[in-house]
Sequence to fold (235 residues):
Amino acid sequence: MLRDVAKDLALRIVDLAHVDVDRVLFVAESARRGSRASTRPTVFKDTGTRKSEDGQYRRPKIKIGGKRVAYVIALRPKFFLDSTVEERVRTIIHELYHVAPQFDGRLAERRRHQQLPHGEYQETIDRMVGEYMESANSRLLIRLAAHGEVWMVQWLARPPLKARAEDRAARRTYTERDLFEGPVLMRTTTSAWLEKMKDSDCFDSDLFWQNQTKKEEKNASESKKEKEEVVGGNP
Ligand SMILES: [Zn+2]
Fold:
């Protein structure tokens, strides 16, 4: 779901054209303070390799489907719960914007929050969100409006950010065997974009917000009926 949206973003936003989405791993992770998501580099900033400058630390290699993962983007509960499609797009753009223009596993130095005034950073992201929402592939984007259980890739064994080079027990490589797909609860708040989509034929699938709401109404009326039967029952 997220991979396809991210590919569409990289295709349509000039500032994200350098992102090779096939080498970005999206995982659902647990909460970390109030953060919605975070991007983890896979190499050390100073050396550009998995070995630290002083040789004391190593970063594990992550290889999925034979491809070296360059970045891991962790999506946290706040991303999935009570968010609008626009907010989710903003989070994904924000995270992809941290990816270095060289796509070398490092974070973009000039795009770090400390390097840019807060307002400027927000403005840049706002501009990209605005542009994208105008031209987005609605059929793709509507998946971010899912309401209910969605299946997301998660860690079975989460690689540490780094391990001591001398630690022989530390695993060097992580693969798809360390991942699983499991349910995550997604609750979508309606928004200007979603309201606009209501009249389109994008709502065909069960996954989407409108049908889900209908289902909830149906469930509510069914459970009401059950209660009435219980009350009126007992021969
Ligand atoms: Zn950030």
